[in-house]
Structures are given as C-alpha cells and as structure tokens.
Amino acid sequence: MVSIPATDRADVAVVRTTVGVCIFLSIWAGAVIYGAASGFFARLYPPLIGPLVACGILLPSLIYFFTPALRAYFVRIGLYPLSVLHVWRIPAALLFFWYGAQGLLPTSFWILAGVGDLIAGCLALPLLRGQSDRRTYARIHVFGFFDFVMAVGTGLALTLIGDPLMEPIRHLPMALVPLFGVGVSGASHLIAFHLLWKSRPETS
Fold first, then answer.
1. Burial of 102 (C-beta count, 10 Å sphere; 0-12/13-18/19+)
2. Distance from C-alpha of 42 to C-alpha of 154, rounded to nearest angstrom
3. Number of independent structural domains in the chain
4. Are 127 and 80 in contact (CB under 8 A)?
5. Domain assignment present for 1
6. Each residue's pLDDT tens digit, 35-79
7. Which domain holds residue 39?
8. CA distance between the termini of the chain
C-alpha cells in the first residue's frame, strides 16, 4: 500500500477546500443575482436589507470560527489571499461614483462608500505584485473594516428613514455590492484579524 506524504495530503485538502469555498461563493452570488433580478429584494420590507447585509458578514465568520478544518485552511493559505481580494473595491467605488453622478444614491452614502472603497482597494492594489508584510496586511484590514462600519451604518440609517434614493441597492448591479461583496469582504476582515492575533509577536 502506497502512503501519501503528509505535505501532499495537506495540499490536497487545501485544493478541495478552495473548490468548496468557490462553490459556496458562486451559490451565494447566484442567489443575490436571482433575488435582485426576480424582484425579491425590491419587494422586501426596506429595513430588512440591513440585517441581510449583517448576516452576510456574520454567517461566514461563524462558520469559520466553529469549523476547525476551515480555520486550519485559512492558517495554511495565510493573509495574502484575504488581503489582495480587496482590490475588487476599486470597481465597486467606481460603481458608487457612477450612481452618485446620476443622482441615483444619497450623496452622503455614495461619497462615503465610494471614497472608502477606493482607498481600501488602493491599499490592496500593490499586493498584485506579490505578498507583503504583516503590517501592510493589518493596515488593509483595519481601514477596510472601519470603512465597512461607516458605509454600512450610513446605508442602514438611510434605509431605516425611508430615503427613496436607497432603492438601487435592491437591483443589479448595485445589489451585488452590499449583499455579496460586503459579506465576503467583511468576513475576510474578521478572519484576517483572527490570523493577525494568532501570529502576533510574542512579548517577553
């Protein structure tokens, strides 16, 4: 009987988990696209959009924290993929700017969310050249999470007071930003914070 080296088994596990994560994300994105295209989100009671966005961050994070195999997977792949993915926030920022220029979003919301996403994306952009150090990863995730708190909080407040200009977040393509992108990125921040805490330098 041929035994498989431990390193090879670990590599196979990483590939399998990566495929599983990609399938999960594809199903999630597909559900958001269907919900927006079918009018489900448009018919939803407006204040419920906020809890949906929050669940998009909390549920993947809870799955991570309560699944040892998934925690081991992210320890193995490290902070780089969790950080470089935030480059997506540059096109998200451009989308906010476009909607704002058309007068289709509240001014306070699109400026705050757009500028924040642009900065967050630009912080991650140099990672396209390769991996970086712990301090750079920490800076990306601290700013990115702060940006989400401000933007999501502002969007939620405007939704609760019934601002009609928040309607585009229920339709494509904007729906993908709060109902998919925010969840993925927010969960990546929480996972990254955990990895940063676990890898913190020992102090004597």
1. exposed
2. 20
3. 1
4. yes
5. no
6. 999 999 999 988 888 889 889 999 999 999 999 999 999 999 999
7. 6-198
8. 48
